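> example.struct
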């Protein structure tokens, strides 16, 4: 406040892994970037990367069918009024 900056309030919150999902996000144009970013974590995915990539693409494609897009992620979306 002393610097003239106003407080920011987040208007929407997206929760991944919630028990109830109510929002799908189209990740068709960013899935390859997501896969490359995951691949950069060699210490975490190592020799299992191809299996993980296959599962990730499969899950995303199944969710995409639900939302009418090629690939999607699912969240519980809530507003913060």
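> example.seq
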């Amino acid at each position: 406040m002393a610097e003239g900056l106003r407080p920011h309030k987040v208007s929407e919150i997206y929760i991944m892994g919630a028990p109830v999902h109510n929002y799908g996000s189209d990740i068709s144009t960013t899935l390859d970037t997501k896969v490359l970013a995951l691949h950069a974590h060699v210490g975490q995915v190592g020799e299992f990367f191809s299996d993980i990539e296959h599962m990730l693409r499969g899950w995303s494609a199944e969710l995409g069918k639900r939302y009418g897009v090629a690939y999607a992620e699912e969240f519980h979306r809530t507003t913060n009024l």
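> remarks
The chain has one domain: 12-79.
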